[in-house]
Design brief:
This is Peptidase. By secondary structure, the chain is α/β, with parallel strands linked by helices. It contains 8 helices and 10 strands. The protein has one domain: 3-Layer(aba) Sandwich (Aminopeptidase), CATH 3.40.630.
Length: 304
Amino acid sequence: MQSYSIGTPGQAWNDEHKQQWRDAQSIERSYADEVLAKLPNNLKGFSVIQYGALPYDENRYPLYAVVSEKISLSKPTVLITGGVHGYETSGVQGALQFINNEMALYAARYNFIVVPCISPWGYETINRWDPMAIDPNRSFYANSPAPEAAQIMAFVASLNTPVLVHVDLHETTDTDNSEFRPALAAREGTVNHNWNIPDGFYTVADTTRPQLEFQKAVVQAVSQVTHIAPADDDGRLIGEPVQSEGIICYDKKALHLCGGMTEATYVTTTEVYPDSPNATAQICNQAQVAAICGALDFVLAANI
């Protein structure tokens, strides 16, 4: 059994263990400087809306979305979410890059709800969890204990518009195996089994609505920017069977993932690999933007 620095192997954490974990975290970067400062001051046709704040420090962690000023019933609505896992940097920075450089090009055809950083405490401390040792991306359900999930769900519901496309921006990193999966096993009192970290980009479709042609379009768009992760010797990525090049499926609603928070027809979770020797931070950001644009272009081409 792989040991972790907190807790007793085989025994789930109690509140004291969670406090030990929380006390071990520290601020590594600035949400104000790296995220809030990049929100547009005056982007024609869009409003920057504060939809909440994290209770850990409401002044430090206000939550923002960039939303079409007028939600038109004649246009489909697109939800783009980044930073559900705060440590997955390109999800946040890719969303901001899309907002500032690409979104206006699609404004005539879509309504947008773009939330670049759902978990700012996680962004600052480079963490998967929130301060309560809860994974926000397993917390998208009614009466969620994770304020990151609860507040974005409430905000999207308040807009009262059906979502057609949801692109949720993520990364798979080497620290998934070195830190976050061992921490999860320690928290739960279970045995950790690391997976092979895929070298390259892949997407996670929804088992109940995979829309494989849509996923393929996303993968194809990203392949122009960075390499697509090959399947392992068992034909899998992170333990899941590959459906097509760079595509696996999760049951997003059953797992309470961000990608399952709406009834959107077209849902994809991007997974960028920032630790590849063939990747840079900017390549990773560009891959996220390419994934978004590939998703939007597919739906436009389908005349939906």
